[in-house]
Design brief:
By secondary structure, the chain is mainly beta. Helices cover about 0% and strands about 40% of the residues. The radius of gyration is 12 Å and the shape is elongated.
Length: about 70
């Protein structure tokens, strides 16, 4: 679970990059103040995934997320 200390200042962006281990199958959950579409399932061994967020001053709003990148 990713839990930030706050939502940041309006307009700030946060890019998270995840790399799976040798087996994959990780699940990322986002706690408050994230405003998200749900968990981020990371499938595939040794793959990279990203998620992009923009603060509205109160919440970190999800802009995009990727499937597995090689």
């Amino acid at each position: 679970t990713i839990t930030p200390s706050g939502a940041g200042t309006a307009g700030e962006e946060l890019c998270l990059i995840f790399t799976t281990d040798g087996t994959g199958g990780n699940v990322i959950t986002y706690a408050s103040p994230f405003a998200t579409t749900g968990t981020h399932t990371l499938t595939g061994a040794s793959k990279r995934f990203t998620s992009l967020w923009r603060s509205d001053g109160t919440k970190l709003c999800e802009i995009s997320r990727t499937a597995a990148l090689t």
